[in-house]
């Protein structure tokens, strides 16, 4: 198993089901639940579309992480996007989040550990933030398969506080690695 590091750029949280989340000085991750005080916190799924389909589903989307490199890519394409605006709880730098295998553990700050469960499936609310943003976070690979670039989702294995500037240590799972799929 390999490990490498990145950094937390920003943390964001909101207690209501609004799309963007305001930046905070810190957030507290709660084991098995998610971000303390966030609308998506819970043992079972909290995303409204998922609740409508089956409210008993386990919440594999407790924490949403987006790489700040995506924000830079979007700004270069003419969008004005900053940390928290795409609904993420943790904005990172220096880690290829989309390239991580399922089951990767992200050690955040002093104690917190988030296990990556899958890719965020971007939704039409992105176009409400800025027209054309949804197609900007979707792409196609060489085989024509859909590539979702709007970050990854995870569950909290170990709680703790996370702040901007905290180191993120990446712990890859044992091989064989499984690609991330949408959750």
What does this 3D model show about the protein?
With 183 residues, the protein is of the alpha+beta class. It has a single domain, classed as Beta Barrel (M1 Pyruvate Kinase, Domain 3). Helices cover 13% and strands 33% of the residues. The strands form three sheets. A seven-stranded mixed beta barrel has the order 1-6-5-11-8-7-13. A three-stranded antiparallel beta sheet has the order 4-3-12, with no helix packed on it. A two-stranded antiparallel sheet has the order 9-10. The longest helix has 9 residues, at 68-76. Residues 21-171 form the MOSC domain. Pfam families: MOSC. This is MOSC domain-containing protein. InterPro entries: MoCF_Sase_C, MOSC_domain, Pyrv_Knase-like_insert_dom_sf.
Strand-residue proportion: 25-35%
State the separation between the terminal residues, measured CA to CA. Answer: 24 Å
CATH architecture term: Beta Barrel
Sheet/helix structural class = alpha+beta
Taking all Cα atoms into account, the compactness measure Rg is 15 Å
Helix content: 10-25%
**What name does CATH use for the topology?**
M1 Pyruvate Kinase, Domain 3
- The domain count comes to 1
- N to C succession of SSEs: EEEEHEHEEEHHEEEEE
Task: Work out the oligomeric state of the chains in this entry.
Answer: single chain
The stretches of 5 or more residues where confidence is low (pLDDT under 50) are none
Number of strands: 13
Number of continuous helical runs: 4
The backbone outline, from C-alpha atoms, is: globular
Kindly provide the name of the CATH class.
Mainly Beta
Q: Summarize this, please?
A:
The chain is an alpha+beta fold. It contains four helices and 13 strands. This is MOSC domain-containing protein.
């Amino acid at each position: 198993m390999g490990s490498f590091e990145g950094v937390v750029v920003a943390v964001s949280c909101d207690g209501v089901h609004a799309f963007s989340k305001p930046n905070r000085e810190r957030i507290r991750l709660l084991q098995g639940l998610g971000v303390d005080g966030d609308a998506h916190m819970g043992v079972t799924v909290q995303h409204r579309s998922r609740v409508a389909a089956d409210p008993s589903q386990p919440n594999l989307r407790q924490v949403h992480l987006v790489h700040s490199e995506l924000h830079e890519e979007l700004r270069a394409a003419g969008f004005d996007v900053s940390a928290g605006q795409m609904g993420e709880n943790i904005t990172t730098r220096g880690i290829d989040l989309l390239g991580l295998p399922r089951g990767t553990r992200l050690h955040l700050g002093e104690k917190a550990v988030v296990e990556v469960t899958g890719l965020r499936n971007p939704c039409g609310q992105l176009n409400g933030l800025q027209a054309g943003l949804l197609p900007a976070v979707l792409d196609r690979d060489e085989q024509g398969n859909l590539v979702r670039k709007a970050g990854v989702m995870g569950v909290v294995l170990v709680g703790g506080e996370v702040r901007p500037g905290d180191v993120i240590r990446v712990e890859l799972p044992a091989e064989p690695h499984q690609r991330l799929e949408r959750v």
